[in-house]
Amino acid sequence: MNELDRLKLLMDILGFKTQRDFAVALNIKDGSLSDILRGRTGISNAIKDRLNFKLNINIEWLETGVGEAVKKIGPVISEIKEGVPYYDISLSDTDTLILMEEKAEYFVNYKPFNDCTAYLPVYGDSMYPRYASGEIIAVREVTNYDVLQWGEAYVVMADAKANYLRSIKMIYEHTDRNKLILRSSNPNFKGDTIIEKSNITSLYIIKGKITRNLI
Questions:
Q1: pLDDT tens profile 129-142
Q2: pTM, whole model, 2 decimals?
Q3: What is the 3-state secondary structure (H, E, C) of the chain?
Q4: 191 and 87, same structural domain?
């Protein structure tokens, strides 16, 4: 049994009587689901996110057949404004994560991270293995740059004087209290970046992550 076979099996496991009901639950068009079920298109990460969060499906089972199909616990996706907004954006596409909620793809109601500002996907490998490309991180805005947790990962956004930096980096103390040291966790990305606190326009601490295999 392959991934597509297991997706088809989910309709029976979850009790969907028609393909249309399954499509509605995933918030996609009937035709899009039909193309997937016929093998014309693959199962995208966006679909897997919805299976994971909204229908509580164990994506490891979907991909490999290992474990149970349905998780016992986990985040829940909502189309209404309950929980923390998820923005399917790259950091380079925004100046702030305090976006209008109407721009959110959906809302993730997950108690451990419900005090966060937003969820967003990780792009790139500079923070691997701490945060891998494709994972979803929960971030909370920080307004006092004089009280930071050294060695923790932050989303850093800066102004023109810092070349409009948009990055996820670990932050370390600098001998000059007006500056910060930014560092990747991936050893292949060598060299520190020094930034003036005054050049930071937005700063968010990463409180945790949600993987598509979360159980």
A1: 888 888 899 999 99
A2: 0.66
A3: CCHHHHHHHHHHHCCCCCHHHHHHHHCCCHHHHHHHHCCCCCCCHHHHHHHHHCCCECHHHHHHCCCCCECCCCCEEECCCCCEEECCCCHHHCCCCCCCHHHCCEEEECHHHCCCCEEEECCCCCCCCCCCCCCEEEEEECCCCCCCCCCCEEEEEECHHHCCCEEEEEEEECCCCCEEEEECCCCCCCCCEEEEHHHEEEEEEEEEEECCCCC
A4: yes
